[in-house]
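I am writing to request your help with a piece of structural work I have in hand. What I wish to show you is a protein chain and, alongside it, a tokenised description of its three-dimensional fold. Could you please explain, in whatever detail you think fit, how the structure tokens follow from the sequence? You will find the record immediately after this paragraph.
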Amino acid sequence: MTTTTTTRTLITGANKGLGFETARRLAAAGHTVYLGSRDAERGRRAAERLGVRTVAVDVTDDASVAAAVKTIEADGGLDVLVNNAGIEIWAPDGEPLGPTETTDEVLRSVFETNVFGTVRVTRAFLPLLRRSASPVVVNVSSSLGSLTESTTPGTPEHDYPGVAYPASKAAVNMITVKYAKAFPGMRINAVNPGYTATDLNQHRGMQPVEEGAEIIVRMARLGPDGPTGGYFDAAVGTLPW
């Protein structure tokens, strides 16, 4: 069990965008926040702006993740993990890569961060999370990962032409379900921030990060009686898989 009076929270990919806003909001709520960033200097600058701690963590690199675990363990442990780091790969014209343009290499690159990175980080931090009195994992997914929405004509998810990013988020959803079943003492959920203006989508999103971070923050603050193994959205509640 973590022996601190505050909730210790790691957010990956948090030097900008949704991760940064989530860090800001959770710090304001009293969490001890570790702002995770692949680039140590960018992470340091972002953390200074918020008055939080920083840890260099590249979710695609085993050694980097192991070093982050040692740093946070030495500092007291971990209660909440927010797997936020994610990428999308765009065509030269700035459009999503459709079925004919998506190569195995593109798929592998997107999965390396969005899927394998989520597994790598979660698995590495499990020993620390299991010592917490109220462990929480939030996997930042997307409504594009919903098979129901993607097969329902007239929805934005149905009309989205890209392959790699939706496939990666569908995989994240399944990982969420499997981990939640395996660790019933933890609150492990997937969330959809909505179409938020960030670097990930070239700032095409229709809402600001303040709105997108709402569901991430809400699920990061769950107590031991909160839901687990679910897929949530701030506006509609539970999303269909």
